[in-house]
Amino acid sequence: MCGIVGYIGREQAAPILLEGLSRLEYRGYDSAGVAVYDQGADTLSVHKAKGRLKVLSDQIEGGATVPGTVGLGHTRWATHGAPSDVNSHPQVSRSGKIAVVHNGIIENYAELKAFLSEQGVPFTSETDTEVVAQLIEYFYEGDLLDAVGRVLRRIEGAYALGILCSDAPDQLIAVRKDSPLILGYGEGCSFLASDVTAILRHTRQVSYMEDGELAVLTRDGIQCYNHLMQPISKEIVQVDWEVDAAEKGGYEHFMFKEIMEQPEALRRCISPRIRDGEVYFENFSLEDDYIRGLDKIYIVACGSSYHVGMVGKYHLERLTRKPVEVALASEFRYMEPIVGPNTLVIVISQSGETLDTMAALREAHRLGAKILSIVNVVGSSIARESDQVLYTWAGPEIAVATTKAYSTQLALINLLALRFARILGTITPEAYGAALEGFRQLPDMVEQVLSHRDDIQYFASQYFNHNSVFFIGRNVDYALGLEGSLKLKEISYIHSEAYASGELKHGTISLIEEGTLVIALSTYGPLFQKAMSNVVEVKSRGADVLALTTDSHREEMGRTADAVVTIPDIHELMLPSLGVVPLQLFAYYVALMRGCDIDKPRNLAKSVTVE
Ligand code: F6R
Fold first, then answer.
1. 473 and 456 in contact (C-beta within 8 Å)?
2. Which of 176, 185, 599, 602 is the most buried (most CB within 10 A)?
């Protein structure tokens, strides 16, 4: 998704902007640009290029050819208008005085564009963002802040905006509504960015802008205003991530690095949550009586986070005996969900900024439900609007395909299921103790699975040429199959589908023919025999079966499947957490062998902030 970085200080701005943009590349983009105020020429110099940031950087020699100490940079992921030089940001007004970078969508841009066109304003791009730049100029009568205020009263939609005007070159303006924007405080300089990683090399002192806020950045500091343009003071927080945590640290790909970081991420996520033989959540404000009084639990999320929700449903229902529904966030708000004060809505999101998930959260709030969110990015919009947040503490996840965030989300929802079961009295002390022991073992067991990655690499070398793959499984193995299938298709571009094994015979089995690759998941012990019969079913139609099961079932599975990968036997609740690791590795190695752009798969973005 688009990325913003802005700088005002005493150093040459362009190299700082390019460096910041390079930290945002992981978000996915198709073009990039910078606008810098050139004092000598008293003008804004704007440089934009379709394609990778390197194209832009080469054009301006890493920024060296662009003078000036204040500027804006942007990586664009096209929404309105195709990826092109002219549609890239910054967009400038007709006189070239005002430059704007924008994340989000201006929903009423067509109407505003028609109005400006009638007034004779010429447009050069197809973007909604150009409308903002032109409209600011239209209202501009010497007071930039006043003009911006008038524009904000007219535009609708979601936006994070950075604004620079050559008439007021000692300031940058930042505005936020429904799209994240962060302010950074340096020595004699100030920053704005859509993501903290863009400015982490320069400052760790940041503020998170709230919806409706505007900020004026100067070399001497930052003044913020609320939506009524009243001055406000913002809390400055210290970011304690290591810069290295957002870099590759010697690995070829972020995705591989993040797969390998899972044991550590799980330790960080789990160990502070188990104290004196009890599941413990920091600042947990949902009272026991409220949990006992729940009629229903909803889990709402997108993509892999939704797959975590699918596993969560099986575990929560099994342990608490409360009904649990899982909904895709993009569907939730349009399906008239039956939600009220006795419904807990669990929202799961790595980024905490996914627009569909955010919209579902707001709808659930409107209907009177409490929101518990499971989020990785601290201070993100979803975290801030929830009644209760549980942070995954996975650290920054850079690869577009999620791995360590998925694993830590899963750990948290399992811990939650266990805690709720304890409160509701639906688990015996022995079963509770056994599950806690499973959590204690999990990080080491994940390490053990990772240590066998060469086996997975070998299987990937056997199968990477297939063009179509089916993942089959029952119960939690079905949910696991959905994630394995998504991982494979999103980074290797192999067509892949996940099926509940029992559903195959209702239609899809007609696609199984000689040599079709079927990845059969059978880690869930109680259904092993059922899963075996599905393996026999597809084998007898010619499928090539790669099976995933537990060590104790290796032999039996090996009698039917063509190849078997195993995970150690562990407490039932942890099986999907172990099972996902070989599937992540398989997708990774297959994509590697097919020469794919693993960390930035085509058409995808890390944080999906459009509907
Ligand atoms: C797949 C993947 C996506 C995300 C989805 C939701 O590997 O990463 O499917 O899970 O876009 O994103 P978050 O969790 O940030 O809301």
1. no
2. 176
Q: Which residues are catalytic?
A: 2, 606
- Is residue 104 over pLDDT 90? no
Residue 72: closest CA among 153, 165, 6, 20: 6
Taking residue 90's Cβ as centre, other Cβ atoms within 10 Å add up to: 29
Mean pLDDT of 333-345: 95
Smallest CA separation from ligand 1 atom 1, residue:
401
Q: Is the peptide bond before 90 cis (omega within 30 degrees of 0)?
A: yes
Residue 79 has pLDDT above 90, yes or no: no
Q: How far apart are CA 504 and CA 252, in angstroms?
A: 38
Instruction: State whether residue 572 is helix, strand or coil.
Output: helix
The pLDDT tens digits for 120-174 are: 999 999 999 999 999 999 999 999 999 999 999 999 988 999 999 999 999 999 9
Task: Report the pLDDT averaged over residues 396-408.
Answer: 94
Please tell me the pTM assigned to this model.
Answer: 0.73
Mean pLDDT of 45-58: 95
Please state, in angstroms and as integers, the Cα–Cα distance from residue 609 to each residue in 124, 126, 142, 257, 561, following that order.
25, 20, 34, 25, 42
Question: Is 42 in contact with 10 (CB distance < 8 Å)?
Answer: no
Q: What distance in angstroms lies between residue 329's CA and the mean position of ligand 1's atoms?
A: 11
Cα distances (Å, whole numbers) of residue 578 to 216, 442, 448 = 48, 8, 10
As beta bridge partners, residue 202 has none
CA of 210 to the centre of ligand 1 (A): 23
**Alpha carbon separation from 493 to 397, 400, 467 (Å, rounded):** 21, 14, 9
CA 3 to chain centre: 14
Q: What residues does ligand 1 touch, defined as CB less than 6 Å away?
A: 302-305, 349-351, 354, 357, 401-402, 486, 490, 607-608
- Write down all domains in the chain, each with its CATH number in brackets: 3-240 (3.60.20.10), 254-450 (3.40.50.10490), 453-593 (3.40.50.10490)
Ligand 1: which of 1, 27, 302, 607 to mutate, most ligand atoms within 8 Å of CB?
Answer: 302
Asked if 318 and 574 count as a contact pair (C-beta separation under 8 A), the reply is no
459-495 burial, b at 16+ Cβ within 10 Å, e below that, comes to: bbeebbebeebbbbbbbbbbbbbbbbbbbbbbbbbbe
| Ligand 1 midpoint to CA 302 (Å) | 6
Ligand 1: which residue has its CA nearest to atom 7?
A: 401
**522 vs 94, 446, 488, 505, 566, CA distance in Å?**
62, 18, 18, 18, 10
50, β-bridge pairs: 31
CA distance 372 to 387: 6
Instruction: DSSP for 452-504, please give it.
Output: THHHHHHHHHHHTT-SEEEEEESTHHHHHHHHHHHHHHHHH--EEEEEEGGGG
321, 358 Cβ separation under 8 angstroms:
no
